[in-house]
TrEMBL record:
Occurrences of domain CN hydrolase (ranges): 5-267
Protein name: CN hydrolase domain-containing protein
Domain of life: Bacteria
Family: Belongs to the carbon-nitrogen hydrolase superfamily. NIT1/NIT2 family.
Origin organism lineage: Bacteria, Pseudomonadati, Pseudomonadota, Gammaproteobacteria, Pseudomonadales
């Protein structure tokens, strides 16, 4: 059982790529920096390849009415190439690539899928479970399963953006024994605060680390209602006498543009917090009471 997990968490700026190789070079820069920093995992944001929409000549003319069809036309054919790239980078740089969600259509259904690409070629997939209004507008279908996985012996979970706002999911993962939750995100300025407060709440309630990566910038698509997103990379942690961090923020990015936040997650302190902290939310829960209360509704 490892006592530390070194992670790099991205703030990734949207670029208008003219070809797939430009996107590949952009991502590789992040992965290489994370590996050079000694990280075992790099967290990349939701809708990571959104800028690939600009590889299509019609991108500037797409309006809100046609954006769902446009996503299907451009992104779905590149899905396998995307997965091959991410798997190759994980192997080349000996690092786990986490998050990096990709919107695609399969068997007639639109899906927003996050991933874990391991250095040994293993690929895990976690589909987003709760759809925002924007995702419903492009006819995205929610997933119906939730996985826990390990990175170098550390039990982890993965929730996509909006999913972190539903505490039941993190409680389920905590029951599976996870200690680190990864959250790739894309949201607007108001939404960044929803993600911020939700991530901190999940870290507090479940006595775990919650790492959040975000996409930033203006996509320019659709032309009449362009996607614009903001935020920062951060790690939320428990608030107690073991961590001695009063606001529950272990680390946060302070750079103005894109970049990586590097953090070392002290799992020995986390385990001590769970066992001997001044508050012990995991052991003090009363699930039988909660079931009894809901049964009266």
């Amino acid at each position: 059982m490892n006592n530390k997990l070194n992670v790099s968490i991205a703030v990734f700026r949207i670029r208008h790529y003219s070809a797939f190789h430009e996107f590949a070079a952009h991502v590789e820069g992040f992965v290489a920096e994370a590996a050079n920093a000694g990280s075992q995992a790099v967290l990349l944001p939701e809708f990571l390849p959104m800028g690939l929409l600009w590889t299509d000549a019609d991108a500037a003319n797409v309006d809100n009415a046609g954006v769902a069809a446009f996503y299907r036309k451009v992104l779905t054919p590149l899905f396998d190439e995307f997965k091959a790239l991410m798997s190759a980078l994980a192997g080349q740089y000996d690092i786990h690539i986490v998050g990096a969600t990709y919107w695609h259509e399969e068997q007639g259904v639109g899906v927003n899928s996050a991933f874990v690409f391991a250095p040994d070629g293993t690929e895990l997939r976690q589909d987003k479970l709760h759809m925002t209004r924007g995702e419903k507008a492009i006819r995205t279908t929610p997933g119906d399963s939730l996985l826990a996985f390990e990175i170098d012996g550390v039990k982890c979970g993965l929730l996509v953006c909006y999913d972190v706002q539903f505490p039941e999911l993190t409680q389920y993962l905590a029951a599976q024994g996870i200690e680190v939750l990864f959250v790739p995100s894309l949201t607007d300025q108001r939404g960044t605060w929803r993600v911020w407060h939700s991530a901190h709440a999940r870290a507090l309630e479940n006595q775990m680390f919650v790492c959040v990566s975000t996409l930033v910038g203006n996509l320019g698509i659709p032309r009449d209602y362009p996607v614009s997103c903001s935020g920062q990379a951060f790690v939320a942690c428990p608030i107690d006498n073991r961590f001695k961090i009063e606001d529950g923020t272990l680390a946060r990015s302070d750079f103005a543009d894109e970049g990586l936040l590097h953090a070392s997650l002290d799992l020995e302190t986390l385990r001590m917090s769970r066992e001997k902290g001044e508050v012990r939310q995991l052991t003090d829960r009363r699930p039988e009471l909660y079931r009894k209360l809901f049964a009266t509704l």
